[in-house]
Specification:
single chain, eight-stranded antiparallel barrel, 2 helices
């Protein structure tokens, strides 16, 4: 008969081996439940808020190794301020220049874990052809077995602050600091 401490140690070792050999999981961004939002101070008078309505990409998570990465592509032409005149103006060459730069990309090189959960992503944002490091902080992360899709779906709330001038977005009269808030859901790929 095996002692209780030995059984526990053997089970722990077996679980560690299984987890180590478990493959990383791939998730596809759900464009209907993903919304990159941003806001900037407008001349100290008000806060201008906008969002992008078309986002694609994938996230890879290796929970056992506590690593991962993400590749997100935003359709810059889907820019929406809730105002048709401002939408058209923002697409012009001196702002988002969507004719020359129709996409915005984020390459998350490393997902940081704490307590077994993703808490941040270190990566690079490419906007207006300029690529700079941007760290996303995750204030929420949760995965569920989706009752309708019959697959695992993970969701997160990510945020960051960037200086728009560093990306060449110089159009006044907005403050240089832009707050990003990204709601994201991703569906596990079929095995």
């Amino acid at each position: 008969m095996t002692s209780r401490p030995l059984q526990t140690a053997l089970m722990g070792a077996a679980l560690a081996i299984l987890c180590r050999d478990a493959p990383a999981q791939q998730y596809q961004i759900d464009p209907g439940h993903t919304s990159p939002n941003f806001e900037a101070d407008h001349m100290g008078l008000s806060i201008t808020r906008g969002k992008f309505t078309k986002t694609t990409g994938s996230v890879t998570l290796d929970r056992a190794a506590q690593t991962g990465h993400a590749d997100i592509v935003i359709d810059a032409t889907s820019l929406d301020f809730g105002n048709a005149i401002l939408n058209a103006r923002a697409r012009e060459a001196d702002m988002f220049d969507t004719g020359q730069f129709p996409t915005i990309a984020y390459h998350g090189k490393a997902i940081e874990f704490a307590g077994g959960q993703p808490v941040a992503v270190d990566g690079e944002l490419t906007l207006l052809g300029v690529t700079r490091p941007v760290r996303l902080t995750l204030s929420h992360f949760k995965c569920i077995d989706h009752p309708r899709l019959k697959r695992e779906v993970c969701g997160a709330e990510a945020s960051a602050r960037i200086n728009r001038l560093h990306f060449g977005l110089r159009y006044p009269p907005y403050a240089p600091e832009v707050k990003l808030a990204i709601q994201i859901e991703a569906i596990k790929s079929n095995d």
